[in-house]
């Protein structure tokens, strides 16, 4: 696996692969990779002949008081994991390479309206930062397919909307969330948790599952159900940012007649904000 740091080298390597008739897959990441990322690369390697991963901690998607400076940068370990998972090329640019003229006055891709909900309303500008950097990566690599994790459910929905609205000729694949044995969704931010917080964190998925079971069993008062479980999480010591039942594709608040639902949660343990979700289709068994 080669690592390149410039757009020129990236384009040259991808052009070589294309000239050999290879299909190209892209797995965009911010690094500090775990088995969830490895699963995305493995999936890509099953689908295409040439897998490009990117590692770029994108300043454009971090708010002023967020963890841009402390976000873990672990390139050597990441390279090893990517190699094991079947990655062919790693693109690991600097901020200057990605934004040579700075970020002020930059042309941006405005994310679809569904980005204003949930995480978007708590992290203003976050999804515009994501759609801008992802469309830059798409233009640089011009992949046949791109793979993202379903843990970032709203991010995937926003990127799907971008690809559809801007007619990008890229197949998107959402891969299921990889979890620790106790149910906690793997996330680069789990590393911020103290031992005590880590022990509490699986409660998020536990409560999502309990809510899904209640809905499956006929509960339709989604507001009451959400506030009941949010209160239980708060009692355990988590600070709930949101816990909501939404329509799975529009991400609007779920109506009692909706069949395709997603329950989404964002909660703080100390200063660490974790997100998770459970998708349930009432026409299929849980
Ligand atoms: O999910 C992430 O790691 C990032 O938001 C992404 C998609 C790589 C864009 O920076």
Total domain modules: 2
Compute the CA-based radius of gyration: 19 Å
Order of helices and strands: EHEHEHEHHHEHEHHHEEE
Q: What is the CATH class designation of the largest domain? A: Alpha Beta
Helix content: 25-40%
Structural class: alpha/beta
- Beta-strand content: 15-25%
C-alpha geometry: globular
Give the helix tally. Answer: 10
CATH architecture of the largest domain: 3-Layer(aba) Sandwich
Describe the SSE topology:
Blueprint: E1 2-4, H1 7-19, E2 24-29, H2 35-47, E3 50-55, H3 75-85, E4 89-91, H4 95-98, H5 118-122, H6 126-141, E5 145-149, H7 153-165, E6 171-175, H8 195-200, H9 203-216, H10 222-236, E7 239-247, E8 260-269, E9 272-281
Parallel strand pairs: 1-4, 2-3, 2-5, 3-4, 5-6
Antiparallel strand pairs: 7-8, 8-9
This protein binds pantoate.
Overview of this structure, please?
The structure is a single chain. By secondary structure, the chain is of the alpha/beta class. It has ten helices and nine strands. The strands form two sheets. Strands 1-4-3-2-5-6 form a six-stranded parallel β-sheet, with helices on both faces. A three-stranded antiparallel β-sheet has the order 7-8-9. Helix 2 links the parallel strand 2 (24-29) and strand 3 (50-55). It is globular. The termini are far apart. The structure holds pantoate. Pantoate binds next to strand 2 and helix 6.
Entry summary:
38% of the residues lie in helices and 20% in strands. By secondary structure, the chain is of the alpha/beta class.
